[in-house]
Amino acid sequence: FKLRKDVKWHDGKPFTSADVKCTFDMLMGKSPQKFRQNPRKSWYDQVDEVTTNGDDEASFKLKRPQPALLSLLASGYSPVYPCHVSPAEMRTKPVGTGPFKFVEFKANESIKLTKNPDYFKKGLPHLDGIEFTI
């Protein structure tokens, strides 16, 4: 997979193939860092390893063909995590690459997001922020 070169995490660090490898190593249980719950681990049973070729390319080596892998990766349930941020930190102060950055979470009250001015799709998002009331 060739990665976009102009994508940055919300904290300004570049999104790279190292993040892809690190994320899938965690998902497959091959990393010292672990997720508290990992309901998607079985999705990647056929992934033997993820390798990188520079900062902008990640390859998935499979144990056997798995045609559904592309659908699983595209599903929205296969996010790539910033490996410079611990899973524990991600639970309280998430960092992503999307159009909105995390601002605040109040349990049983609200979640606040603000516009990501460094979003790689220029001109987006059109909103300055979003507040979800729980």
Detailed description of the structure:
This protein is α+β, with helices and mostly antiparallel strands. The protein contains three helices and five strands; from the N terminus they run H-E-E-H-H-E-E-E. It is globular, with a radius of gyration of 16 Å. The mean pLDDT is 93.
How many beta-strand segments? Answer: 5
Coarse structural class? alpha+beta
Helix content: 10-25%
The gyration radius over C-alpha positions equals: 16 Å
Q: SSE order, as H and E?
A: HEEHHEEE
**N→C terminal distance:** 38 Å
DSSP summary: helix tally: 3
Write the layout of secondary structure elements.
Layout: H1 17-27, E1 47-52, E2 58-62, H2 69-74, H3 87-92, E3 100-106, E4 110-115, E5 129-133
Antiparallel strand pairs: 1-2, 3-4, 4-5
Brief rundown of the structure:
By secondary structure, the protein is α+β, with helices and mostly antiparallel strands.
Features:
3-stranded antiparallel beta sheet, 5 strands, single chain, alpha+beta, 3 helices, two-stranded antiparallel sheet, 134 residues
